[in-house]
Each structure stands twice: as structure tokens, then as C-alpha cells.
Amino acid sequence: MNKDEIIALDSEYIAHTYGRLNLVPEKGKGSTLFDKDGKKYIDFTSGIGVNSLGIAPQSWITAVTEQLSKIQHISNYYYSEPTAKLAKTLVTESGMKYAIFQNCGAEANEAAIKVARKYSFDKYGEGRHTIITLVNSFHGRTITTLAATGQDVFHNYFFPFTEGFKYVSANDIDALKSALDGSVCAVMCEAVQGEGGVNILDSEYVSALAKICGEKDILLIFDEVQTGIGRTGKLFAHTHFDCKPDIVTLAKGLGAGLPIGCCLIGEKCADVLHPGDHGTTFGGNPAVCAGANVVLDTVLSDGFLDSVNEKGEYIKSKVLSFGLDCVKEVRGKGLMIGIQVTVSHKETVKKALEKGLMLLTAGKDVIRMLPPLNISYGEIDEGLEILRAVLSTAE
Q1: What is the DSSP letter of 336?
Q2: What percentage of the chain has pLDDT greater than the value 70?
Q3: Exposure string (b/e) for 283-298, b if CB count within 10 Å is 16 or more?
Q4: What digits encode the pLDDT tens for the residues 228-243?
Q5: pLDDT digits over 161-196, tens only?
Q6: Which of 7, 43, 145, 368 could tie 362 with a disulfide, CB 3.0–4.6 Å?
Q7: Three-state secondary structure call for residue 105
Q8: What is the pTM of this model?
Q9: Rounded to an integer, what distance in angstroms lies between the CA atom of residue 295 and that of residue 288?
């Protein structure tokens, strides 16, 4: 089928729940891909932070294929070697106690919410169930994680939403203190807000937040669905700050292209869930976990995270060197970068795609870049030259 035929077929048979861009990828390698017509693109999106090792990484393909040739699925009534190995690495590296595997980030956050509420119920009884999240946060698209998301635009149409959430402004510790009452059991936040605009929490705020949570026995949850697994230059973004959360959620880059989610729980929550309290059919799938083990082996290898930080600083400095008036600010950590612009961020993404560069948007005015963690400097330079040209004509 050609490009137009594929687009027509998609439009006829797939519900129109996405604002698709005019691209039909055919194949690729690393951070470079080609569409059905052979046109080349540089990928600064990695499937919204999923393809952490780029397109078609051979070691990942080999691990997944070998596992598929043995057994593709067994359910969680039985044991799986790649799943157990993945859990060990995640628990060891995070300093947590247990892993709860899921299928995606929203499910991981659902698990975190259930753990937090049951922890509080078991210890304090009914009525202590409220979870505070931050304005401009994003935690998923299920009814409950939409309710947890601190953006009014998501709180429409699907009423009634799950109750028990409050929203406070990021980096405002007084607002947090004002929201605390006897109903609060947890605070959930992103170290760097992705969908909300690549907004970074202040170190002082996180330290104060962690201190308050510890004193009041309120669980601290870090949503690392987008920021985790090396995206910000550390395995977990919350380790940029002096704090230890009670729960950490992961997804996206952990699977490198296959669906996975994970809720890591600390010692305080170790005995909260019992058989029957939570479950999933596909969570911890052995083939997906075999691939995720390769991701962690790669990200934790000597010098890898240093290279993520170096590339991130390189990109930020290059964008600033453009000297363009339409660039208001460049911010981010590692290879999670936001460019706040005074021109239309959506139109910029469309024009960049026409010229062969894949970008994302975030918030109201931010161009977001989430390139594969192993992107080459050649691919970075090629992509940034396209971005410079597009932004220059947009001024």
C-alpha cells in the first residue's frame, strides 16, 4: 500500500481520537527513519519518550525474539525469569522494596493510587484518601488518572470523575501546606512535568515536600513515566533531588517500544497489597521484560548517562546559539528538553515535519524534544539545523 492508501484506510476504520500528522513511517535505525516514499526524518520524539534506544536496536530485538521463540505469555499465576530479573534490577537501583508490573504509565499510576489509599485505610481507617497533585501535571487518560491530572482541559465530558484529588501550584510550598488536611494520604508529582511544559521542580521545594510528607506520614509518589530510565540524565529523575519517595511509577522508555508499566513501592508500603487486591493479565509479560532488561543493561553501562547529560547540554546550547527572538527559554534535564517560543508551537512542529524533523509539543507554547537516549551527534546536528531554519522563518 502507498502512503495515501494507508491514510485513507486508517481514517475509515480507526476512531478519530488523535490529531495525526502527515507521516507514515516505513523503517529506520537509531534516530533516523524513512517514510513510505523514502523521505528521511530525524526523530526527536522517540515515540513520545518510548524508543529509548532508538529504532530497531539489535540487542533489544535479539532478546525479545529469543524470548518469543520460547514462550510469549504465561500470566501472573506463574513465574518468569526475565520478569524476576527486571524486578531485581529496578528494585536494587531504586532502593525500593517491590515492583508491581503493569501495561502502561496510566496503569502504573492507578496502582500507585491504590497502594497509597489502602496504606492509609489500613493504618488510619476511612476518610484519609485524598491525593494532592500539581497544576500542569499529567498522569494518564483513565478516568482516575485524568482526575489526578492537574489540568482543567482534561476535566471535561467524562463525568463523574473519580473523587479525592486536590491540585496545588508547583514550587509553592505554602500552597501545599494550605491544602493539607486530615483527608490527605499522598502527594503525587513529576520531577519534570512533561506534557505540562517541561517544567522542573525546584530543589528547595522537593526537599520541603519530602520533609512534610515524612513528618505527616503522607506518601510521596513520583510519576517517572516520562522522566525515568535515563531520560533526564539519571536513571530516575527524582534522584536529582535530595529525597526518597515511597512510590515510583515507570513506563515509556523502560519498554523501548513494547508496552510496559511498573509501580515500585518502598518499605513503608511493602505489605499493603495482598493476593487479589490488584492484578493484570499482561503486566510483566516475559518478552517485554526481556527487552526491558536490555534497556537497563544499556542505560546502566559505564558512561551512558554521562553521554545523555552531555548531549542534552549540547542541544540546549546550540538552540540558544541560534540567537532567535522567538525562543523565550530553553529548559530541561538530560534529553528531556523544552523550548518555550513566542510563535505557534503546533505550527512549528508541522513545518519541521515537512522538512524532515519530528518534534513534540507541550503546554501552551513549548516545543518538546525527547530524542532516543543514544542519538548520535550527527543526527542531533542535522535535526537542529532543520529546527533553526523553521524557527528563523517563523519570526
Answers
A1: E
A2: 100
A3: bbbbbbbbbbbbbbeb
A4: 999 999 999 999 998 9
A5: 999 999 999 999 999 999 999 999 999 999 999 999
A6: 368
A7: helix
A8: 0.98
A9: 11
Task: Decide if 145 contacts 106 (C-beta within 8 A).
Answer: yes
Locus of grid cell 527572538: 325
Residue 393 has pLDDT above 90, yes or no: yes
> d(Cα 90, Cα 262) in Å, to the nearest integer?
9
In 10 A of CB 387, how many CB atoms?
26
User: How far is the CA of 292 from the CAs of 80, 102, 194, 283, 392, in angstroms?
Assistant: 14, 13, 22, 13, 40
What DSSP letter does each residue of 15-79 carry, written as one string? -S-S---S--EEEEEBTEEEETT--EEEESSHHHHT-TT-BS-HHHHHHHHHHHTT-S---TTS-
In this structure, are residues 294 and 63 in contact, taking their beta carbons and an 8 Å threshold? Answer: yes
Does the pLDDT at position 395 exceed 80? no
Going by C-beta distance under 8 Å and a sequence separation of 6 or more, which residues neighbour residue 237? 190, 191, 192, 222, 224, 227, 228, 231, 333
User: Would you state the pLDDT for residue 242?
Assistant: 83
CA dist 223 to 92, 281, 384, Å? 18, 22, 29
Radius of gyration of the chain (CA): 21
Host H or E run for residue 247: strand 247-250
Q: Please give the mean pLDDT across all residues of the chain.
A: 98
In this structure, are strands 192-193 and 199-200 parallel, antiparallel, or unpaired?
antiparallel
What letter would DSSP give residue 154?
G
pLDDT score recorded for residue 25: 97
Q: Is 25 left (phi over 0), alpha (psi -120 to 50) or beta?
A: beta
Query: In residues, how long is the chain?
Result: 395
Q: Report which residue type is found at 163.
A: E
Is pLDDT of 248 > 80? yes
